[in-house]
From TrEMBL:
Single Gene Ontology MF annotation: purine nucleobase transmembrane transporter activity
Chief location: membrane
Cellular localization per UniProt: Cell membrane
A GO CC term assigned to this protein in UniProt: plasma membrane
Family, per entry: Belongs to the nucleobase:cation symporter-2 (NCS2) (TC 2.A.40) family. Azg-like subfamily.
PANTHER family the record matches: GUANINE_HYPOXANTHINE PERMEASE PBUG, XANTHINE/URACIL PERMEASE C887.17-RELATED
Taxonomic lineage: Bacteria, Bacillati, Bacillota, Bacilli, Bacillales
Membrane-topology descriptor: Multi-pass membrane protein
Protein name (database record): NCS2 family permease
Pfam families noted in UniProt: Xan_ur_permease
Residue stretches spanning the membrane: 18-37, 57-76, 83-102, 108-127, 139-156, 176-194, 201-219, 256-277, 330-348, 354-372, 384-413, 425-443
Length: 444
């Protein structure tokens, strides 16, 4: 094992790798709680139960997708990078594709499957980098920041800190409400730990908020800590229902936009995460990432596997940097993280009682981290500022990641042409321009 993961060459040992793997798991374990609640639309009270995803099945799919994807990354790419269903992508799945566009969760999973398959093909043939390079860096940064604002808004809504207001559309909620106070407690305690640099602050914050909720009677106390693993049957293989029984639903502009959005966001999320983690670990050589193709294949294949299991897009997690900071340098740390995800399957009785006010702080804090890219956008150039701004602001304002991306991608070639910078527009951007024009004409 030491030889396979090149411990001596990278100056590491079992102790450092194990500690790094545990640290990464603690830093991202919140997804085990957050993902089932998000995909089942638990915070949407008037949504028909028959149309919701089964939270127990999603929990199992989340843990398995994370474990399998992380193991593929560990043994194929040998990187200390963990994978799991992505925050932001799961919000797009639930709140945009299902809630706003009206697609079934089975159709949404088919969209995830297609995006994963396309990702695999693009990776194998080396096309992925060409498409990424065609999209201007400012729009890439804007998408990340916009998703950050979007999931923050969702977190504030779930906590009922922000509520509907007939006069102003939105307004401040009742801060004396018990669940709202519980969420505020979670936000404050998580921010304190994050500011102090605690490892696993988001996960620990959720646990402390859960305990506080149990003490004051807002959250049910679980009857047991360890229990049987929930059945994955309600979600397993669901994409094939659309693929084989509702074929007409596949060939629509709506499905095309959904697949492209899943693909687009996963593209840049994965690339940014891999570069950040590898750079921190000192793994980049001559400004190149060794085994980058293998890492991308691990990510894309994890998305395919995750969709079949029954969860939204599985992607590389930036929280892996916490493990690297704790000493992880090789894929052995990822093996440890994957094992912990598998063990978590037996703790559903504890995780199953957690409510939206507990997960809201995680969404809000992750949103804070995601908007850090704003300072890298050149706001002084109006032709850049306009599409970037619309991309960012329209995501929370329309409650749709796809709409934000679409509006930004429409304005970019327009402002660049008017500025006389038409030579800088890649032909791919014109393709996106017409796709999103059709999207707004025929779908919205």
């Amino acid at each position: 094992m030491k030889k396979y993961f090149q411990f001596d060459e990278l100056g590491t040992n079992y102790r450092r790798e194990i500690i790094g793997g545990i640290t990464t798991f603690l830093s991202m374990a919140y997804i085990l709680i957050l993902n089932p609640l998000t995909l089942s639309l638990s915070s949407v009270k008037d949504f028909p139960d028959a149309l919701r995803m089964d939270s127990g099945a999603v929990f199992v799919a989340t843990a398995l997708a994370a474990a399998i994807g992380t193991l593929i990354m560990a043994f194929l790419a040998k990187y200390p990078i963990a994978l799991a269903p992505g925050v932001g992508l799961n919000a797009f799945f639930a709140y945009t594709v299902v809630l706003t566009l009206g697609m079934s969760w089975q159709q949404a999973l088919t969209g995830v499957l297609f995006s994963g398959i396309i990702f695999v093909i693009l990776t194998l043939f080396g096309f992925r980098e060409k498409i990424i390079n065609a999209i201007p860096v400012e729009l890439k940064l804007a998408v990340g920041a916009g998703i950050g604002l979007f999931i923050t808004f969702i977190g504030l809504r779930n906590a009922e800190i922000i509520v509907d207001n007939d006069a102003t559309l939105v307004g401040l909620g009742d801060l004396t409400n018990g669940n709202t106070l519980l969420a505020i407690f979670g936000i404050v305690i998580t921010i304190i730990m994050m500011t102090r640099g605690w490892k696993g602050a988001i996960f620990i914050g959720m646990l402390l908020t859960t305990v506080a909720g149990m003490i004051v009677g807002l959250i049910d106390v679980p009857h047991k800590i360890v229990g049987a693993v929930p059945s994955i049957a309600p979600t397993f293989g669901a994409p094939f229902e659309t693929l084989f029984h509702h074929t007409s639903d596949l060939f629509t502009v709506k499905m095309l936009v959904v697949v492209l959005t899943f693909l687009f966001v996963d593209f840049f999320d994965t690339a940014g995460t891999m570069v950040a983690v590898a750079n921190q670990a000192g793994l980049i050589k001559n400004n190149k990432l060794p085994r980058a193709g293998r890492a991308l294949f691990a990510d894309s294949s994890a998305t395919v596997i995750g969709s079949i299991l029954g969860t939204s897009t599985t992607t590389a997690y930036i929280e892996s940097t916490a493990g690297v900071a704790a000493g992880a340098r090789t894929g052995f740390a990822s093996v440890i993280t994957a094992i912990l995800f598998l063990l978590s399957l037996f703790f559903f009785p504890v995780l199953g009682v957690i409510t939206s006010p507990v997960t809201a702080p995680a969404l809000i804090v992750v949103g804070v981290l995601m908007v850090s890219s704003l300072n890298e956008i050149d706001w002084k150039k109006f032709e850049i500022a306009v599409p970037a701004f619309f991309t960012i602001i329209m995501m929370p304002m329309t409650y749709s990641i796809a709409t934000g991306i679409g509006i930004g991608f429409i304005f970019y070639p327009i402002t660049m042409l008017l500025k006389g910078r038409w030579k800088e527009i890649h032909p791919v951007m014109y393709v996106f321009f017409f796709i999103f024009i059709l999207y707004f004409i025929f779908i919205l």
